[in-house]
Structures are given as structure tokens and as C-alpha cells.
Design goal:
heterodimer, A: 238 residues, alpha/beta, Rossmann fold, 10-stranded mixed beta sheet, 4-stranded mixed beta sheet, 6 helices, 14 strands, B: alpha/beta, Protein-Tyrosine Phosphatase, Chain A, 9-stranded mixed beta sheet, 16 helices, 20% strand, globular
């Protein structure tokens, strides 16, 4: 396995660093490539089995955009070739056509021109989330100051009736195109969703049990047990 | 004019409400302050302030420092107004200040101490004419409320800018707060190297240089991101302290404070490094206010960490140690865990960190649990860690991810059930780590432990 984590020193915010810690625990040092902001991504010249990028504080938007821009064509090629990619939290915001904040539009990487994003730092949306991806139930946290807009051409997760998707007017959460997955859900996404993690790593060719799999499953089932009772009382926004 | 009329109606109404509350013994509450705001949106702007106004803000430690400043000023004969139940939002400030004036809006105390929430700092600071503001530290806090620390840094800057005359006392060893650009007169405090090496934490609140975005290096690290940093790329580095603590001796319970050419030995009031930082900040405050080293030293003997933050007793041959470790805030719990990792006693730990407000709604964001540095508790002398509530499996997963053997982790039915899993045998210390909202519950648990220990002694005697 070769798993590339893009810019971990900057993209470990809002608990997403725990996904990095988890991957580092599960795989050897040789298998997890940590690419820092001043380095060329490993995927440019080598085969990778999974690319992961987590959330970043907003003030790092520009430096990440600048660093990734020269390699976006290569990233697009890899996605077309079915390379598994997972972006969590606000990482997704960098790959639409633009980000709008206080009426000012900033160009982003345009990997998915169908989507754009609108941010208001003073209005954080928090919610416990429950949804489905095919047969897999997805749980997690939304805690975001922006929403994604555009058509729902590449739906990833279908939010349950008490939750919103990528914006308050849709039940579709995130982007799924070929083996590219992006979601606003943040925090320990891989740990909270062992079934999806197994599926994703399966796409990368990993067939062994997950690290701490039985404990992750117990935690997942425990969460579902209270989320799915009481008519979804325990999910949705605060 | 209308504003003033509304203010006086608000003052009288809230004072009347407060009078009734005091008769009922329920005055430790913000509701009188909320009532004042109902009548007057700028209530704290109009209310007269006492001669000395001191504010304390920061992610962790502000309640402790507020209480310590009160201890000192009271010892010096000041009549002080402060909320000892740590109300740090606007209604709490109004509640504090309305008790500090007469019904004619004349100050009736010498000083007020306000604990200020860092997110709403500007909303208060613009109106309360602070003489001093102590900033303890800034770090990750509740994700839902505060987002990322840089957002809070921007809010604290707004606070500084809203009252440029206020003298700021800043922790130079916290790059998040000491690098905030500002124009206020400033005093910096710092502590010399306290440990060798660098510990990689689950969360790094100051990962890269704010100037060039290169990874920063630590000349030395105290805990988490607190320490002396430098950027190997552009040379950006930590600010030098005006008051520098050194030679902390936990056995002798002393440390040295250097200010200019003066060096003075002070007693330490707690065995935790984060409380030495808190103490140093108030030494800087009172020194700048003109108190002699001798007076400060004398008064520090009567300054205490509030029992709602640290509570220690020794009974039946066991140490029972209660420590606050804020829920929803991995930085607070991790710092306390690091402190515990320096203890060699055989111990059992009960975790009561889950936010009380979410026990019913079960909507607590679990991110912080996974971010917390449980690896500090992976030590042979820590025999058992007990946790019991709807998030217990998350705690267990986070602990296992941090290397704690599964057999040491016990899941109880609920928080109250945790004491049923204490073994006591071969145990020197029982640690109860509790969320700030669970002071009463944790004290109740401590009393139940004492009863159990008492029964064991009686059984042994029989």
C-alpha cells in the first residue's frame, strides 16, 4: 500500500488529524507518505493507492491552493483512472470553481466546476449526522462555516430526514465520482465509520482486518443504537 | 437620554431581582444580569466601574486566576466584586457589575474582576474600562463553539483593539496569544525550560510559522504548543518574557521569578506547571501595580487554586485527587493527563468528562475525545481507567488508539456506577477527572469513595 497524505502539518484541523494518526498506526512508515506543503506530491511521479486530505484552518486556503495548483491536472488524471481519494471536512472547498466569502469570490482548483462554496465564519453549523452510502450507514459530525452549492451530479451520502446535506436545501452530502470521495463530515471519520473505511481501503487493494476493527465496530454499533432510536431524537442540528 | 432611562430601569429591576435571589440564597446566578440586558442593550457601558478593573481571558486557567486575584486583593484590604461561579459571558459581567454599584449607580467596591470569554471579549472589553487584562493561553477548545484556535485569536485581537489603553499581560510562551498584533501596553511572562525533548501531541495548535508557513521548531516545550519556538526558515521566534519563572522545585514548593535585575523566590501554590504559569501571571500583575516582592510573596501564601479546580484529600491510606479537565476541550484534558503522567503512585482513574448538557440530547461532538492525548496515561502505575456513559465506547477506542491496553479500560453503566469498579488494593491514589459542570457530582462520588474506604477499614478491624 502507498497512502499519500497531503500537507498533514496544515490539514489536521477539527479532529481530522486523527484519521492521519489512525492510518499511521495501521500501516508502516514506508506505506504512509506525508507530503509537506513545500514538497511535490508523491502522486506526481509514483503510483499511489489512496490520497487523503483533511480539514485546514481557513487562513491556509491560499497556501494550499498555491501548492496544489501545478498538480491538479495530474490529480484529475488519477481520479479518472479510479485512484481512491478521500477529502474530509473543508478540504472539499478547495476543489470547486470558487469560494465566496463576504461577497468576494476566490477562484479555487476547479476540479469539480459544477460546485462552488459560500462561507460565513460567524455562523458555524453543527449537527450530529446520520446518512447512507449504498448499504452503509454513515455517522459523524458536521461543524462547518460554509456550504456547497451546485447541481447534485455526483452524490456521495444521502442524509437522513433530520439532517441536511452539503447545504440546508439538499439531502445530498459530499461528492462521489469514480473512486473520489469528499464529505463535509469531519473529525475521526475513518474511525467512526469502519464499514466505509473497509470499503474504501478495499478499493485500494487492502483486504486485511482494520486496525482495532472489533472495537471500532462496537463503537459504531453503539452510536447507531442511540442515533436510530427515539425517532432520531439524537441526530440533527443543535 | 432614552438609553440612560432604560439603563436605570434595568439597574433597579435587576437589583430588585438580585435582592430577592439573595433572600432565597440563589444569588450565584446570571439571571439578574440577563434581566438588566432586557432593559438596556448597553447596560455594561452605562454602569459605573470601580477604581480597579481587572479582566482575565484565555482558553484554560481563567477561572483559577480570577479566584487567585480575588484572594490577593482581599488580603490587601480591597472590597472586591467577582463571580465566584465563573460566569464569563455578558450576562455574568452585568450580574457582577450591578452588585458593584449602589441604586444611584455609584461604585460601592474598590475593584471588580471579570472572567472574560475569549470569543465575546470585544463585546465586553469595549465597555468595561479594564486597567489590566491577563491572557492565560489560547488553544483548541469546543469545536462547535470556537472552531479552530485562529478564529479565537482573531476575536481576542478585536478585544485588544476595542480598548487600547488596557494593559495586557500575555503568556510569551504561548505563540498563539503572544503573536497577536496589538497596540496596547504589554507585559510578557514566560518560564524557562522545564523539560528536555519534544512530545508530539495528537493536536498541534501552532504547527507552522505564521510568516512563512514552515514547520516551527521548539527550543523547548513545556506542554502542548506552550514553549519557546523558532522558525528555521525565516528566524521568527518567541517573545522574551519581562517576568521569567525558573527553577521550579516541586519538593520545596518554590520557584524563582526574574524581573529585570531582580530575582525573588516565591512559593508555588500547586504542583502543576499550568498553575505555576497562572501564578506567574498574577505576580506580574501585582508587581506592575506597584506591590513589592515582599508583599507579593507574603500574600501568595494565602492565594489558593479554587477547590472547584483541584481538590485533594488523604484518607484511609489513599490519596483522593480531584482535578478539573474540561470536557469538549482536548487541550485541557491532555494537559492534565501530562501532569498525571509525572506521578509515580499506583493509581486508578475515573473519567467524568462528558458534557452534562449533552447527556440527554446525546449530541456532543466526539472529535475532542479522539484528539485527547490519552497516551500520557499509558503507564504501568496507572492500573485502571474507568468511564461510564453513552460515549464510553468512544473513550475506549480513543484510549486504545493511544496505546492503552484494553484490559485496563473499564466501561461502567453510567458515571455514578464508576466507583463500583475501583479495586483499592495496591492503589495509592484515586484520580477523579471531571468536567467543569460536574463539580457537585464529582464531590459526591469522592464522598462515596470515602464511605467505601471506611467500610473496608471496619471490615478489616472485624
Amino acid at each position: 500500500m502507498k497512502i499519500e497524505i497531503l500537507y498533514p502539518e496544515l490539514t489536521n484541523a477539527y479532529g481530522d488529524g486523527i484519521n492521519i494518526k489512525y492510518l499511521k498506526e495501521m500501516f508502516s512508515k514506508k506505506e504512509v507518505i506525508l507530503t509537506s506543503i513545500d514538497e511535490e506530491p508523491y502522486f506526481v511521479k509514483h503510483k499511489v493507492d489512496l490520497i487523503y486530505m483533511g480539514s485546514h484552518p481557513d487562513e491556509y486556503d491560499d497556501i494550499i491552493l498555491k501548492s496544489l495548483k501545478p498538480y491538479i491536472k495530474k490529480l484529475r488524471e488519477l481520479i479518472e483512472e479510479n485512484t481512491p481519494v478521500l477529502f474530509t471536512g473543508n478540504a472539499m472547498e478547495l476543489f470547486g470553481s470558487f469560494m465566496e466569502e463576504k461577497g468576494i469570490k476566490k477562484e479555487t482548483l476547479n476540479l469539480f466546476p459544477e460546485f462552488s462554496f459560500k462561507r460565513n465564519k460567524e455562523a458555524r453549523y453543527n449537527s450530529m449526522f446520520l446518512g447512507t452510502y449504498g448499504d452503509i450507514k454513515i455517522v459523524g459530525n458536521q461543524s462547518q462555516t460554509s456550504f456547497m452549492y451546485g447541481d447534485n451530479k455526483y452524490p456521495f451520502i444521502e442524509a437522513c430526514e433530520d439532517c441536511i446535506g452539503s447545504n440546508p436545501d439538499t439531502k445530498v452530502e459530499g461528492i462521489h465520482y469514480k473512486n473520489f470521495y469528499a464529505t463535509y463530515l469531519l473529525g475521526p471519520f475513518l474511525l467512526l465509520n469502519p464499514l466505509f473505511t473497509k470499503y474504501l481501503l478495499g478499493l485500494s487493494g487492502y483486504k486485511k482486518p482494520l486496525y482495532l476493527e472489533s472495537q471500532l465496530m462496537k463503537t459504531y454499533e453503539n452510536r447507531l443504537s442511540f442515533m436510530e432510536t427515539m425517532e432520531h431524537k439524537y441526530i440533527g442540528p443543535e | 437620554m432614552i438609553g440612560k432611562i432604560r439603563f436605570f430601569i434595568g439597574l433597579w429591576a435587576s437589583k430588585f431581582y438580585l435582592w430577592i435571589s439573595k433572600l432565597r440564597g440563589a444569588e450565584r446566578d446570571d439571571r439578574a444580569g440577563l434581566l438588566a440586558y432586557r432593559f438596556s442593550n448597553d447596560f455594561i457601558k452605562h454602569i459605573k466601574k470601580p477604581k480597579l478593573m481587572i479582566g482575565i481571558t484565555g482558553t484554560n486557567g481563567k477561572s483559577t486566576i480570577t479566584s487567585m486575584v480575588n484572594d490577593f486583593l482581599t488580603k490587601e484590604g480591597y472590597k472586591v466584586q467577582y463571580n465566584d461561579w465563573f460566569a464569563n459571558a455578558l450576562a455574568g459581567h452585568a450580574r457582577c457589575l450591578l452588585d458593584a454599584v449602589t441604586i444611584f449607580n455609584h461604585p460601592r467596591v474598590d475593584a471588580a474582576i471579570l472572567e472574560l470569554d475569549e470569543k465575546t471579549l470585544a463585546k465586553t472589553m469595549a465597555y468595561v474600562d479594564l486597567d489590566y487584562l491577563i491572557v492565560t493561553n489560547l488553544s483548541s477548545d469546543s469545536l462547535k463553539r470556537n472552531g479552530y484556535p485562529s478564529y479565537i485569536v482573531s476575536k481576542v485581537k478585536e478585544g485588544f483593539d476595542s480598548s487600547k489603553k488596557t494593559k495586557i499581560i500575555l503568556n510569551a510562551d504561548d505563540p498563539l496569544c503572544s503573536f497577536i498584533p496589538h497596540e496596547n501596553p504589554t507585559i510578557y511572562y514566560s518560564i524557562d525550560q522545564t523539560k528536555k525533548g519534544y512530545i508530539e501531541h495528537n493536536v498541534n495548535d501552532f504547527p507552522v510559522c505564521p510568516k512563512c508557513f514552515h514547520k516551527v521548531e521548539y527550543e523547548y516545550q513545556h506542554y502542548r504548543h506552550i514553549g519557546k519556538i523558532k522558525c528555521p526558515n525565516c528566524g521568527f521566534h518567541s517573545i522574551k518574557g519581562d517576568y521569567v519563572g525558573s527553577k521550579i522545585d516541586y519538593e520545596k514548593k518554590t520557584f524563582i521569578v526574574t524581573h529585570g535585575k531582580e530575582k525573588e523566590e516565591y512559593p508555588i501554590i500547586s504542583n502543576s506547571l499550568f498553575n505555576v504559569f497562572n501564578e506567574l501571571s498574577i505576580i506580574a500583575l501585582f508587581s506592575d501595580m506597584g506591590y513589592s516582592n515582599k508583599t507579593i510573596k507574603k500574600n501568595m501564601k494565602d492565594v489558593k487554586v479554587p477547590s472547584s479546580r483541584e481538590n485533594f484529600i488523604e484518607a484511609y491510606g489513599k490519596k483522593i485527587d480531584l482535578q478539573v479537565a474540561k470536557g469538549q476541550n482536548g487541550s485541557s484534558a491532555s494537559t492534565v493527563f501530562e501532569h498525571i503522567s509525572h506521578m509515580d503512585d499506583n493509581m486508578e482513574i475515573i473519567l467524568l468528562l462528558t458534557d452534562r448538557g449533552y447527556l440527554k440530547s446525546k449530541k456532543e461532538t466526539v472529535t475532542w475525545i479522539y484528539e485527547t492525548d490519552f497516551f500520557f496515561l499509558n503507564k504501568p502505575n496507572i492500573k485502571k481507567i474507568i468511564v461510564g456513559n453513552y460515549l464510553a465506547e468512544d473513550y475506549k477506542t480513543a484510549m486504545m488508539l493511544n496505546g492503552i491496553p484494553e484490559e485496563k479500560i473499564v466501561i461502567a453503566k453510567d458515571d455514578e456506577d464508576t466507583i463500583n469498579y475501583l479495586d483499592f488494593d495496591g492503589i495509592d491514589r484515586i484520580m477523579i477527572l471531571f468536567d467543569v459542570e460536574y463539580i457537585t457530582g464529582s464531590l459526591k462520588l469522592r464522598d462515596q469513595i470515602l464511605e467505601k474506604l471506611h467500610e473496608r477499614v471496619k471490615q478489616d478491624e472485624n
